[in-house]
Structures are given as C-alpha cells and as structure tokens.
Amino acid sequence: MSNIDINDIVYTPLSLDTSKHSKESINSTILELKSLIDKHLSEPYSIYVYRFFLNNWPELCLIAKYGDEIIGCIISKVETHRNVRIRGYIGMLAVNEQYRGLGIAKKLIDLNLNSMINTYKCDEIILETEVVNKTALKLYENFGFIRIKRLFRYYLNKHDAYRLILPINEKSTIRSTFSVILNKEELIESKY
Ligand SMILES: CC(C)(COP(=O)(O)OP(=O)(O)OC[C@H]1O[C@@H](n2cnc3c(N)ncnc32)[C@H](O)[C@@H]1OP(=O)(O)O)[C@@H](O)C(=O)NCCC(=O)NCCS
C-alpha cells in the first residue's frame, strides 16, 4: 500500500481487560486476530490456543493496528526450559499482504524481544519456520537468530521446519545436564 503513513500504525498488546472492553469486543478482536493468522500461516490453531497465549502472556501478544483494522500481530510465550533456563518462544507472526515491506514485522519482533529480554529475563528465544519461507528466515536471521535443527515434515502441509534460536546469554550455550537448576522463584509456568 503506497499511501500509508507508517506513523499512523499503532502497536499495542491485545487487551483482555474486561473493565476496559466488553466481552463481545474482546471476542471479536480475538476472532479478527485468528482470521489474520489462519489466512497467512499453514497451521490451523483453535481459539483455545489463542486464549492460552493471551491469558498467560498478554504483553507478548502484540497487534499492529491501522485505523480500526488489525494489520499484523505477533504471539509469543515464555516458559522455563528443563528447569535450567528461561526460554521465549515466538509462536505466530503475520502481516496483512497490503502492508508488507513497511517494517511492521521488524517492529513487532523488536518489541517482543525487548519484553522477553528485559521483563522476562529470557536466556534464549526460539521459533520454528518453514524451510521454504525465505522471507521469514531472512527476517529472523537479521535479528541474529541461527538455525539449530531441521524438523522433518514438521507441519501439517508436510513441509520441513527450521528451528531457530537467539541466544541471549551464555546459559543458552550450556547443555542442560551441566546447567544449574533455577530457584523456585525463577521458574515461569503457564497458569491457565
Ligand atoms: C514474514 C512477514 C511477517 C514479514 O512481514 P513484513 O512486515 O513485510 O516484514 P518487514 O517489512 O518488517 O521486513 C523485514 C525483513 O523481512 C525480510 N523481507 C521482507 N519482505 C521480503 C521479501 N519479499 N523477500 C525477502 N525478504 C523479505 C527482509 O529481511 C526485511 O528486512 P529489510 O527490509 O531490512 O531487508 C510477512 O511476509 C508475512 O506475514 N508472511 C506470512 C506469514 C509468515 O510467513 N510468518 C512468519 C512465519 S512464523
């Protein structure tokens, strides 16, 4: 889209706060988000998957809005990995075709990484993407993600995936067997 002013794009967490929004408006926003993802990612995710991410890590579910329309989103989570390190996971990312090439995905990833590193103190961040998705690979590799594994027929469409990792500190490079177990207070688990 040529006449779009990128300064008018608003990046915000998807709020589930029923004191600020009606349940109907929250439900319709989640459905809008789901339809954006369904359209652009090969895996189908049920509404419960979205609720799981949104309820547990609301600040890691960011949307990009242009006017009233959701034009992009990123959905992530943070959990303890093998009780020795904190691992962020980028689950879904999509930008509406009309708005691609404007840096929206870069901005969403940047905001997400900032929260994962500074708020959640992640030691590493991982994700998977299709081996054929050159755009996504370039995008993530420019952030410093590196390929660590090829997962055979990982997706329902039978495409292989690459698992990518962004090591944040040295904890990420030490085998779990040789790592120090985290304190109870440091553990991050999903609640819902
Ligand atoms: C991948 C996707 C999210 C990128 O969104 P976007 O907002 O257009 O991306 P940006 O404008 O922020 O571009 C960021 C980088 O992506 C890469 N990129 C973007 N478009 C590209 C293209 N057509 N070919 C190759 N690389 C491309 C570039 O590295 C670009 O950085 P640069 O402009 O500095 O070179 C979008 O294409 C999309 O929704 N695709 C379908 C869903 C998907 O593949 N999701 C990711 C898998 S988990």
Describe the structure.
The protein is an alpha+beta fold and 192 residues long. It has 4 helices and 7 strands. It has one domain: 3-Layer(aba) Sandwich (Aminopeptidase), CATH 3.40.630. The protein has helices at residues 23-40, 47-56, 104-119, 134-142; strands at 9-13, 61-66, 69-81, 85-95, 124-130, 146-151, 161-167. A hairpin with a 3-residue loop joins strand 3 (69-81) and strand 4 (85-95). The longest helix has 18 residues, at 23-40. The relative contact order is 0.15. Coenzyme A binds at residues 40-41, 93-95, 100-106, 129, 133-136, 138-139, 142. Residues 9-169 form the N-acetyltransferase domain. This is N-alpha-acetyltransferase 30. Keywords: Acyltransferase, Transferase.
The CATH architecture classification is 3-Layer(aba) Sandwich
**SSE-based structural type:** alpha+beta
Number of domains: 1
| Total count of helical runs of at least 4 residues | 4
CATH topology: Aminopeptidase
- How large is the share of residues in beta strands? 25-35%
Number of strands: 7
Residues in helix, %: 25-40%
Order of helices and strands: EHHEEEHEHEE
Mean pLDDT, all residues: 94
Family: Belongs to the acetyltransferase family. MAK3 subfamily.
InterPro entries: Acyl_CoA_acyltransferase, GNAT_dom, NAA30-like
GO molecular function: protein-N-terminal amino-acid acetyltransferase activity
Protein name: N-alpha-acetyltransferase 30
